């Protein structure tokens, strides 16, 4: 569905050239041409999005699948995915959505109005609406409209993002967004370039800080550790240091196991010992909640009380959790646990 974009400006009236201001690529787009992500087209000096309301994937699943562990644990969410991405991650597990022929793939999607999305979430007893699967920034205008509608109906909102949107885009979402799951692929520009073909990374980290500090969003960080690409202790220690300093020691960090896929099909899965060692390192750096992901049943997926060290939320599988929380407190020693919880 053609829909005028929100963040752009005309930079040359004589040839109807525009600049997109949605993400940090800030594409200059000539008349009749697409931006880097191929989801936006300049038609006679006006920028349009091609993907407004075009839902490519929809599910009702637990918040743990995002992954978010301290944000209404065990709650069900209506999760939506569209098409396109502003990264090109060589091991992307959602390649068919993120790096498809956008114009062709849109024809295979189902249109849902913001009102229809919210109605479906309420009918299914969902805590809220989450945009995930592909990069949500790619259908920013739709995300914003869905979130505004969700808030009117007292639903929560969540975004799983690479954080590469402009500060202007984040601030437009700010008052409507509750949960911000940020995918941090490394702390070195070289790692981002090798993994995702991205060379400007400062905005990713500043957006994470702004989400927490300015907008009081619930922020969790996820890093998929790819052996030989972002797996050095030096690099991961820098991420841990940033989380501690900018987001706070109680900010959850998910260290997830990489599995070979796409252009990275020759890369070995992340060794379990490496994940465990990096978890221990991060906790030595002062982080309270560091999780190991993509290894079902691993004790590193459980939430432990930071004071008495006893497990208070056990995660056996994504859809199977044992929650012993007592109104946001440890049931054993009554210590307050960081997060947002339903009582």
Helix/strand layout:
Layout: E1 3-4, E2 8-12, E3 17-20, E4 28-29, E5 40-43, E6 46-49, E7 54-55, E8 57-62, E9 76-81, H1 95-98, H2 102-106, E10 110-111, H3 114-123, E11 128-131, H4 140-152, E12 156-161, H5 167-173, E13 179-183, H6 189-196, H7 202-213, E14 218-225, H8 233-247, E15 253-257, H9 272-284, E16 290-293, E17 303-304, E18 311-317, E19 320-323
Parallel strand pairs: 9-11, 11-12, 12-13, 13-14, 14-15, 15-16
Antiparallel strand pairs: 1-6, 2-3, 3-4, 5-6, 7-10, 8-9, 17-18, 18-19
What is the strand content? Answer: 15-25%
- Which structural class do you get from the secondary structure elements? alpha/beta
Shape estimate? globular
Counting DSSP E segments of at least 2 residues, the number of strands comes to: 19
Structure description:
The protein contains nine helices and 19 strands. The protein is an alpha/beta fold and 343 residues long. It folds into two domains: 3-49, no CATH class; 54-323, TIM Barrel, CATH 3.20.20. The strands form five sheets. It has an eight-stranded mixed sheet. A hairpin with a 2-residue loop joins strand 5 (40-43) and strand 6 (46-49). It starts with a strand and ends in a 20-residue tail after the last strand.
